Structure of DUF4345 domain-containing protein:
Amino acid sequence: MLFTRVLLGLQALILAGFGLAYFIRPEEMASLSGMLLMDPSAVTDVRAWYGCLQLGLAAFLLLAQLRLQLARAALDLLVLVYVALALGRVSGLWLDGSLGQTFNLYALLFEVVSAGLAFVALRKLDGG
């Protein structure tokens, strides 16, 4: 259970950090991946989706640390979210021809490692 708690805490910190950064500095954070926010509604959308969604996920992971009956659901969520992001990113890299773009390669690495660690934590909860 220690591995699960550490993983949930670490993921919560990472998601909260990025969530706050995207909420507070949406233009600067978006530019890291090459996005250009050209309208106030685009800035608001980035604050909501990239900022507050990550903050909400972080809050759920912290809640799962306090209520251990939520740990399995939190790990399931991490696996599903990171696998979906990785599949979307791989598809985008292939479809858009942006294989040499460093930001997406680092993000993909993070997503695959995070999904793998969450899967290992699930297996440990099952006693495997």
